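TASK: fixed-backbone design
INPUT:
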């Protein structure tokens, strides 16, 4: 699983993910700081990244229109780096435990709180 962390997600989580064997990049680190969500989405699709964001509205609309590698949405805003990690880490463990490289294909995981998340498939 390859993860692209949107601008509202701490880039420091890239290192934590790498320590657990996951490849991740942050939007500013790939030259997309300040880019519109549509550009970030296009980059993620081209490079087969699951997008991790707190910007649900725009990315859910984009996800409904494309076959995509997945979308993880943190439903709470204003979270600290540690709070973001507390929400993201259980999701990453869950997806990894599925043992299927394409588990998130056309799926959205909405994270409400630490350990509380819902997986939904988007029908194209």
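OUTPUT:
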């Amino acid at each position: 699983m390859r993860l692209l962390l949107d601008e509202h997600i701490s880039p420091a989580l890239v290192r934590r993910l790498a320590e657990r064997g996951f490849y991740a990049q942050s939007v500013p680190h790939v030259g997309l700081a300040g880019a519109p969500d549509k550009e970030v989405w296009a980059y993620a699709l081209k490079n087969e990244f699951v997008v991790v964001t707190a910007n649900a509205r725009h990315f859910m609309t984009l996800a409904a229109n494309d076959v995509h590698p997945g979308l993880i949405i943190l439903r709470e805003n204003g979270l600290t780096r540690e709070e973001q990690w507390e929400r993201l880490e259980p999701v990453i463990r869950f997806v990894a435990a599925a043992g299927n490289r394409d588990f998130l294909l056309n799926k959205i995981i909405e994270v409400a709180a630490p350990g509380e998340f819902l997986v939904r498939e988007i029908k194209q």
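COMMENT: The first strand starts at residue 2 and ends at 5.
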